[in-house]
Structure formats: structure tokens, C-alpha cells
Amino acid sequence: MVYHGIYQAPPGHATCELLAAADPAETRGCAVKRYVFVAGGLPVMTLGRLRLPAMRHSTSELATPPAVDHPPAASDRSYLGLASQVHALIASGEFSAGMRLPSERTLAERFSVSRTLVREAIIALEVQGLVEVRGGSGIYVCAQTPAPGPEPFELTWRPGPIETLRARVLIESEVAGLAASERKDSDLDRMFSALSLMREHMDDKQANEAADRQFHLCLAESTGNRVLLHMVTALWDSGRSDPLWGKIEDHFHTTGLRLASQEDHQRIFAAVMGRDGTAARAAMRTHLERVISEFTQAWR
User: Fold this and answer.
1) Domain 160-295 is of which CATH architecture?
2) Strands (E), 107-203
3) How big is the CA angle at 272 (ends 266 and 275), to the nearest 5 degrees?
4) pLDDT of res. 10
5) Mind listing the pLDDT tens digit for each residue in 254-266?
6) Where are the domains of the chain?
7) Model confidence at 11, in pLDDT bands (50, 70, 90)?
8) In this structure, which of 1, 198, 224, 241 has its CB flanked by the most CB atoms within 10 Å?
């Protein structure tokens, strides 16, 4: 079998070709399957035969595309531990109702933590109804119903959304690289079907997300390693079932991000189809780091 992949970014068409030839030195007249990503339109898969002069391909030329049940301990430097500390300051009156909290940078310096940790802590406080994020203005303490005494900050501990995404960068980049060497032609068809559904449902967030999940799980399944499939499934589903994930998406998920993600997924597909593990790892890392970048930008 000879495999040849081409990826061309918009505004042109992005075409991935899968050639089936017994002799690597002779592809004239061989069967060819084309996965065509039409700019602004639905992806199309076609079958045919190649009637070009004989070609030779080296492998270096192929498809190179540009919840836990217990809360954390008091000493834990998790986002939930930080949220608990900020809640204590709210309960003590240092941050009173209606007051704008210090900036994320200021809070990070005060508690000697990263700004990412502050972002997740603020989201946790928002889920609890303790603060309100006003895009372009700041983060404000919400008025609370008077209580007889200070109430503890209570929220079932789970990995934060950004923490989960960073774990996915490490795991799914390697999954993509392994998929490039282990995948079968039938795996490509299932991945392509998921990509087609993503494009078709670009304006339907829920349906687009379901197709997105299908793509990532098909990719993991194509490695032939059920442990990796289980890990990718767990990372995806645990993140999406967390109210913090829903809240951070309310702030930062846009149609523009879905469009960019579509192109990311097509690059991953092209690399996997071309059996280019290095490109597949890089494309997956770029995709997930793009999402992290979106989720850590200025509040909207």
C-alpha cells in the first residue's frame, strides 16, 4: 500500500488522498480514496482510480501538514484550595458584597499561585454564586443571604477545566502519534464521518461537540489500545460533566473557536492518514493549546 496525504489550508480546498497500490514504485491506475474538505462547505469523500504517470514516495514525504469524592486538604495548592481562601476573605468582610475583587494578576501575586489557578478558582466561586464576572469590568462579590455564622466553601473536588486540558495535551498528543502508525483505513472513514458532522453542525454547539467527541474517541480507538481509549473517554466526559466546564465555556466558547477547531482536526486527520506521527502529535498539541489559550484570555 502507498499512502499519500496533501493538506492545503483555506481559502482553497483541503484534500487528503489515500492511494492503494501493491507496488510502491507504480501507482498508475491504482485505487484512490479522496477526503475533500471544501472551504465553507461540507466535507466529501470520493472513490476512483488514479491515471497519472508513475510516482515514487518516500515515507518522509508523506502527509506533512503545515470526580474525586474528598475535598483537598487545607495545604493543597489546587484551584479549590485557593477558592476556599478567597471565600474566607469574603466571609470575613475583607471583600464585601458589591466590591470588585483585585485583578487576577494581583490575586496570583498575593497567594503565590499561577494566574491559571486564579482563573479556575474564580470560576468555582462563580458556580457557587459567590462572585459575578462582568466582562470588561471585573469580578464582583455577590450579595449573600445573612447566615448565623461563616459557612465553609463547599464544592466537590474535581480537576479544573484547564488542568484537564493540560493533561489532555500530554496524553492525546501521544495518542495521535500512535494512531498515525496503527490506524486502519476503516478508522479513517469513521474519523472523516465525525469531521463531516462537525462541519455540518457548526452552528449547533451541542451537536458539534458530540461530533468532536466522536472524533477524539475514534482517534484513540484506532491505536488498538483500550487503556488509552478509556483514558481519553474519561478525560472528555469528566470535563464536560463538570459545572466549571460549562461556566468557562459560557465565557469563552465561540463559533470562531469551533471554526478554528475544525481546521485543527483536519490537520490531525491529514497527519494520521499520512502515517506521520510527528505531525499528528504537533497538530493535536496545537489544537488543545489553542483551547487553553482561549480559556485563559481576558474575561468577556
Assistant:
1) Up-down Bundle (1.20)
2) 131-134, 138-141
3) 145
4) 46
5) 888 889 999 999 9
6) 79-141, 160-295
7) low
8) 198
